[in-house]
Design goal:
single chain, 148 residues, Alpha-D-Glucose-1,6-Bisphosphate, Chain A, domain 4, seven-stranded antiparallel beta sheet, 7 strands
């Protein structure tokens, strides 16, 4: 299992940052334009049972990724989603919104497991971690700009 974390300070109250994440178009807003990912659907907001579906491309092959939100949910504080269907053996993504004065410490904690055939290749793991760094830097920048 591999862990990844990205955190940044957003110059807005947690309620503002949370409301931004509740937007119906949030998947499209937070998907970097350079990533071969399409937001297909989002049902149920941020609460338990909510579903987000993506289509991503691994080379020429389309792959469906379905994430389901878990019972780990506290409005304006945190929500967690897990990969229900997708290219990885496991994926858990915890989104935390922690107040720091009049700002929000936005933290994304991810644990994932690469498929066995990928895990033996260290370059693939490094590639995945770099893509996560790029993606979450973009996501946090978009959030910072939208909530300021």
């Amino acid at each position: 299992m591999t862990t990844f974390q990205h955190t940044s300070l957003i110059p807005a109250a947690p309620e503002t940052v949370w409301r931004f994440h509740e937007r119906s178009d949030i998947l499209s807003l937070l998907t970097p334009p350079w990533q071969p990912v399409e937001a297909v659907r989002r049902d149920g907001g941020l609460g338990p049972g909510a579903v987000s579906e993506f289509r991503l491309w691994l080379g020429p092959l389309p792959v469906t990724w379905i994430a389901r939100h878990t019972d780990e949910y506290e409005p304006i504080r945190l929500f967690t989603d897990i990969q229900e269907q997708g290219p990885l053996d496991a994926w858990t993504h915890r989104h935390r919104f922690i107040p720091e004065g009049d700002r929000t410490r936005l933290t994304d904690d991810i644990t994932f497991t690469l498929p066995l055939e990928w895990a033996s290749e260290p370059l693939i793991g490094s590639f995945v971690l770099q893509r996560l760094r790029d993606m979450f830097e973009y996501r946090h920048q978009v959030t910072r700009e939208a909530c300021s």
